[in-house]
Amino acid sequence: MSDKITAALKVRPSARQLRWQKLEFYGFIHFGMNTFTDQEWGDGKAPARLFNPAALDAGQWAQTFKNAGMRGLILTCKHHDGFCLWPSRYTEYSVKNSPWQGGRGDVVKEAAEACAKEGLAFGIYLSPWDRHEASYGDSSRYNQFFLNQLRELLTGYGPIFSVWLDGACGEGPNGKRQEYDWEAYYALIRELRPEAVISVVGPDVRWCGNEAGHCRESEWSVVPAALQLAERIQEASQKVDDGKFSRRIKSTDEDLGSREAIAGAEELVWYPAEVNTSIRPGWFYHASEDDKVRPLEELLEIYYNSVGGNANFLLNVPPDQRGLIHENDLNCLLELGEVLRETFRHNLAADSLPKTCLEFDLGEVRLLDRVVLGEEIELGQRVEAFTLYFRQSGEWLKCYEGTTIGYKRICRLEPVQAKAIRLEITLARANPYISQFEVYLSSDRERCR
After folding, report:
1. Cα separation of 373 and 422, whole Å?
2. Which among 193, 263, 169, 270 has a CA at the least distance from the CA of 227?
3. Nearest residue to 67 (alpha-carbon basis) of 337, 344, 321, 251
C-alpha cells in the first residue's frame, strides 16, 4: 500500500461534517430585492421601498420543503446587491426601510422560526460582495462591516447548520479591490456557531464545481487540501452575470480523489461535495420562467446522482413577489416528495438475514430496482469499485457495477426478479466497512415514465 493511500485512510470527517452529510437533501431560498426588480444580480441602487412581499409566508416555504423530502433550508440573507432581509444595525439598506410590515419585519426571523416549527435545519447565505455598501473596496473597513453583519446573523436566530459563502468579488469604489479576510470570517463562525459547516468558500463543504446539477461518477470526500482554497481565488470568481456561468461544467474537475488524483497532493482533507442548482433557469423568481420549472424526471436524476452519489443536494426554489413559492414549483416539489417516499418506504431486505456480511436472501422472489449502499464513513472512505449480483433459480447474475460508495450510493437497476442479492467489493483502499445495504422497488409513477 502506498504512503498516500495510507494517509488517505487516516482522513475522517468532523462531527459537524457528519451531521451535515446526514441531511442529504435541503433547499435554497433566493429571495430579496432582485425578486422585485426582475434581476439576477442587482447593483445596490434599487430603493428599499420596492421590497414589499404582501403575502410572505415562510411557513409555506418550510412546509413545502419538508413535503419534498428536504431536511433543511438556507436563506439568502444578503445577496450581492447588499439589501438585508433582517433589520441590520449596520446599514439602512434593509427591510427596516421597506413598506413590508411597516418596516418592522424580519424575513430571517420568520424563516428560522418556520424551520424550527417544521423540524428543518436552518442555514444562512451572506454574500461577501456588497454592491451597496460604501466601505466595500476599503478592505479593513469592509471586513469589519461584514463581520458585524455576520455576528448579527449568528447570534440572533437560533441554531445554524450551514454558513454558505461564495467567492463573488467585484471592484469597490474608485476601482479599489476588496480583499476578503476569510480567516477572520471562519474564526467568528467557529466561535459563535461551532456546529455549523462553512460551505463552498470554506473548509467543511466543497462546491461540486458547477451550478447545472452535474454530478461525478466517482465522488471522493478525501481530496487534496488545496481544493479548500480554490473558490477564494478572485481571478476565477464570478464578476458578471454572463448567462453562462450558472450552467458551466468543468470537465477537468471530474477526478478529484482517485489514487492518481491524490498522488501528488501534499496534504489530504475530508472535504465532501454539495451539488447546488435551481429548480428554474434563474436563481431568483422571474414570472417569465413560470413555465420553465424543472420536470420531476430531471429533479429525480439529480437527486439520484447527488444524494445517491456521495454528495448532498441543495435545490434552490425562489419565492415570487407575493413571498410565496409559486404553484408550479410547489406542485413539482410535492410530486418529488411523494415519489421519494413511495420508493424508499419499504426496505425489501429489512427482514432478511444475511447469509454472509454482503449477501442477503430475500426469502422469496422479489421485484426490485434500487439498492442503497453506505460505508461507515466515521472510519473513512475506502471502496473504489464494486459489483452487485442477483440470484435467479440458483444462478448469480451481474446487475450493476459501480465505483465509489462513501456515505451513500443509490444503485438504479433495470427491474429484476431476485431471490437473493450480493455485493462484491472488487477494489478498496483497505478492508471496507459497509453500514447500509437496502433493497427497494421504485414507485409506480417513476417506473412508468
Report:
1. 12
2. 270
3. 337
**pLDDT band at 120; cut points 50, 70, 90:** very high
- Identify the DSSP state of 90: T
Does 115 reside within a domain?
yes
How many domains are contained in the chain? Answer: 2
**From residue 269, how far is each of 115, 196, 221, 407 by CA, in Å?**
31, 18, 8, 16
pTM for this prediction: 0.94
Classify each residue of 144-179 as buried b or exposed e, where b means 16 or more C-beta atoms within 10 Å of its C-beta: ebbbebbebbbeebeebbbbbbbbbbbebeeeeebe
Distance between CA atoms of 146 and 121, rounded to whole angstroms?
24
Q: What's phi and psi for 419, nearest 5 deg?
A: -95, -25
Distance CA 33, CA 46 (A): 8
Give the residue with greater pLDDT, 241 vs 347: 347
Tell me, yes or no, whether 284 and 383 share the same domain: no
Judge if 215 and 73 occupy the same domain: yes
| 196 DSSP 8-state letter | P
What pLDDT, in 10s, does the model give residues 92-119?
999 999 999 999 999 999 999 999 999 9
What number is the average pLDDT over the span 361-367? 92
Alpha helices in 245-313, H assignment, sequence order: 259-262, 296-306
Distance in angstroms between the alpha carbons of the first and the last residue of the chain = 46
Helix 296-306 to helix 327-343 angle (10° resolution) is: 50
Q: Which of 236, 162, 174, 235 is nearest to 203 (CA)?
A: 162
CA distance 79 to 166: 10
Q: Which domain holds residue 38?
A: 3-343
Indicate which CATH number applies to the domain containing 398: 2.60.120.260
For residue 387, the cross-strand partners are 401, 424
39 and 151, same domain (yes or no): yes
